Amino acid sequence: MPQSKTKYHLCALDRENMRVIDEVFDTLESMIAKYGKNLNITRRNCEIIRRKTHLACTKYKHVCIEELVPEGTKTYKV
């Protein structure tokens, strides 16, 4: 399967190590592998955080995940 052009920007407060995380990842899996345990996030939680649901605004307000889509790429928003 070809590599997706979409990248994911993680901006979060790591409360255990008292630091700010600001990184870009190629896949959600690589982000979860690196910071999932510290930030207590899973793949399902990443979808909730990206959609900015009520749960994300209350429970995961210290984590922000945004999609970085290259210019000129079609996006389909529902």
Question: How are the secondary structure elements laid out?
Answer:
Elements: E1 7-14, E2 19-25, H1 28-39, H2 43-51, H3 54-59, E3 63-68
Antiparallel strand pairs: 1-2, 1-3
Task: Supply database-style keywords.
alpha+beta; 35% helix; 78 residues; 27% strand; 3 helices
Question: Could you characterize the architecture of this molecule?
Answer:
- The chain has 78 residues and is an alpha+beta fold.
- The protein has one domain.
- It is built from three helices and three strands.
- It has a three-stranded antiparallel β-sheet.
- The longest helix has 12 residues.
- It is globular and about 40 Å long.
- The model has no long low-confidence stretch (mean pLDDT 86).
Q: Number of domains in the coordinates?
A: 1
Helix segment tally: 3
Main beta sheet, described? Answer: 3 strands, antiparallel
What is the SS-derived class? alpha+beta
Give the topology string: H per helix, E per strand: EEHHHE
Mean pLDDT: 86
Q: What global shape is seen? A: globular
Radius of gyration: 13 Å
By oligomeric state, this entry counts as single chain
Distance between the termini: 25 Å
> Helical content, roughly?
25-40%
Question: What's the β-strand tally?
Answer: 3
Strand order of the largest sheet: 2-1-3
Q: Give the DSSP E fraction (strand runs of 2 or more residues).
A: 25-35%
Query: Unreliable segments (pLDDT under 50, ≥5 consecutive)?
Result: none
In summary, what is this structure?
This protein has helices spanning 28-39, 43-51, 54-59; strands at 7-14, 19-25, 63-68. It is α+β, with helices and mostly antiparallel strands. A 3-stranded antiparallel beta sheet has the order 2-1-3.
